[in-house]
Write a structure and sequence with these properties.
552 residues; alpha/beta; Rossmann fold; GMP Synthetase, Chain A, domain 3; 3 domains; nine-stranded mixed sheet; globular
Length: 552
């Protein structure tokens, strides 16, 4: 298939005008008789669909009582705890708009989100509430109340925990207390094209911007990707590495399982090989949302357990994992498949499109690729200077910028018309991601257009060098950036060693440089190799190259 061919119609499912997300994902399960089915597991606690629905309706009634109007924003800044669910569905049922943030972000970032969204209500944990109280004067008049959910470890009784000073004034209130006083309220009628959620860009350059999405965007992608492509089922139990505030996980670990009456397994601890393995084994997860770096760490953790004579990881219940955010190196995929006998569906999505629009899938995995277009979307790989989707497409195998078309496209970036015009072209979205597409329609990631490095007068894609380095048995994971020395750009590789790698860093660095020269064009080898114990991650779980560049 050539890169300018369409493999599917733009639309393959119809969303009724009056269908909204709270009804589609949650209340429809009660109508189907699934009220007593467990919707969420949180350690030893279990919450049925009926319980989630009742608390969501109380949340809706509470928002009305607090004066939150249709279209106003509710900002959820929570770890992965059950109240996240009734906050999100209760907000949607009120006709208000959901925005989400990272509770571990610095105060400046949280203040930015509050001011940018003009949130009427923030739902968060006590320590974040204290920060908001301290900066209240600078946040503006829109913020009416902060509602707190206590911090607990997974399995702790969140509703019975004490809140202390966080309830000392009327500005900060306890969520569970407010819910107990609220009258349940039925969802208000809504149109499928009304704003429902703001999904933020990763903020790789400047502050993150919000993609304004309507109800139909999420429902449509759920139908064509979650149900029709990767095949979520009612008997699934889901677990996620990315946290719920990130749209990737909001979809895979809340919306998608709820859409089919499955169960979401939550844990609030920071994702690590140990905490993730605990969740997968305890919940007997069948679907795992993952990222390449954690896949590698789990394999290393399993090797360490074996080396010390301990019980190895038991992921026997897992049907499949999903991977996104970064390219999944072929050697890592094959090692995972060999060890755990389950597939990983690597794919590509974005906040601009809500979720994944190209992916590997059951019965169709091409290692090293990001699979094919999800039926219902249309993709084109165009030259970097193309200004419209109708431009002449790149030939198969030629690198260009990926454009995507589909019914989950964002309305645009809030309060940034110039950036919107550069990204959205009618129904098309210019992703800014560099790809090549082969003759059969499989996509291969080549980095971001703004990540390319010009070394010695020739372009180098860092992702290509990273994938090459990770083919070496001494490398667990690697990240490549450009650094400037004496006015010249040079490639620098940060490398995490694999277990059993040589201890002489100087000799190993030379070996890796030679290895890359033998596999790629010689000019692409990393001029500098630095070994590190781990790579920094941003709040999306991706390698934080901004932090690496700051380190130099």
């Amino acid at each position: 298939m050539s890169s300018n061919a369409s493999t599917s119609p733009t639309t393959c499912t119809t969303v009724a005008d009056d269908l909204h997300m709270a009804q589609y994902y949650l209340f429809a399960r009660l109508a189907e008789g699934k009220g007593e089915k467990v919707a969420i597991r949180y350690g030893e606690r279990a919450y049925t669909y009926a319980t989630v629905a009742e608390r969501s309706k109380r949340f809706t009634g509470m928002l009305q009582k607090l004066g939150v109007r249709r279209g106003e924003r509710v900002l959820i800044v929570l770890p992965d705890v059950p109240p996240f669910a009734w906050a999100i569905f209760g907000t949607l049922a009120r006709g208000a708009v959901v925005a989400m943030g990272n509770p571990e972000a610095p105060q400046s970032s949280i203040d930015y989100l509050v001011k940018y969204t003009r949130a009427a209500v923030v739902v968060t944990i006590p320590r974040v509430a204290d920060l908001l109280r301290a900066s209240r004067a600078e946040l503006g008049p829109d913020l009416l109340h902060v509602l707190t959910v206590p911090e607990t470890k997974t399995g702790g009784d969140a509703e019975a925990a004490t809140l202390g000073a966080a309830t000392a004034d009327d500005f900060v209130r306890e969520l569970s207390m407010e819910l107990s006083r609220a009258e349940p309220m039925e969802p208000v009628p809504m149109h499928k094209d009304e704003p429902a959620m703001w999904l933020f860009t990763s903020g790789s350059t400047g502050e993150p911007k919000a993609n304004v999405h309507s109800h139909r965007d999420f429902i449509w992608n759920t139908e064509v990707y979650a149900k029709a492509t990767v095949g979520y089922r009612e008997d699934d139990m889901t677990v996620s590495v990315p946290r719920l505030f990130f749209g990737y996980a909001t979809g895979t670990n809340l919306f998608f399982p709820f859409a089919v009456g499955a169960t979401s397994g939550l844990f609030c601890e920071k994702p690590s090989p140990e905490s993730l393995a605990w969740a997968i084994e305890t919940y007997r997860a069948t679907v795992v949302t993952n990222v390449p770096t954690m896949l590698g760490k789990l394999l290393d953790h399993d090797d360490e357990l074996a080396a010390t004579g301990k019980k190895r990881l038991d992921f026997g219940a897992v049907r499949f994992s999903m991977s996104a955010g970064e390219a999944l190196p072929e050697p890592l995929l094959r090692k995972w498949q060999a060890r755990f006998s389950s597939d990983v569906y690597d794919g590509i999505g974005s906040a601009e499109m809500f979720h994944i629009y190209a992916t590997n899938r059951p019965g169709d995995i091409k290692p090293g690729s990001l699979g094919k277009v999800v039926v219902g979307y249309e993709l084109r790989v165009l030259p970097e200077d193309a200004e419209a989707a109708g431009a002449t497409a790149c030939a198969p195998g030629e690198i260009g910028v990926l454009w995507v078309k589909g019914d989950s496209v964002s309305h645009g970036y809030y309060a940034d018309r110039d950036k919107s015009w550069k990204t959205f072209h009618g129904h098309w979205c210019r992703t800014g991601d560099l790809f090549r597409m082969d003759e059969d329609g499989y996509l291969y990631f080549a980095g971001r257009a703004d990540d390319l490095l010009k070394v010695g007068g020739q372009w180098v894609a860092p992702v290509e060098v990273e994938e090459c380095l990770m083919r070496h048995p001494a490398v667990s994971i690697a990240a490549v950036i450009g650094v400037t020395h004496d006015g010249l750009v040079k490639t620098k590789a940060f490398v995490v060693k694999a277990k059993g790698a040589p201890t002489d860093d100087t000799l190993l660095a030379e070996e890796l440089q030679t290895f890359v020269q033998t596999k790629l064009a010689k000019y692409k080898y990393p001029r500098i190799v630095q070994f590190v114990p781990d790579l920094p991650k941003n709040d999306r779980g991706k390698v934080d190259k901004k932090a690496l560049k700051a380190e130099g």
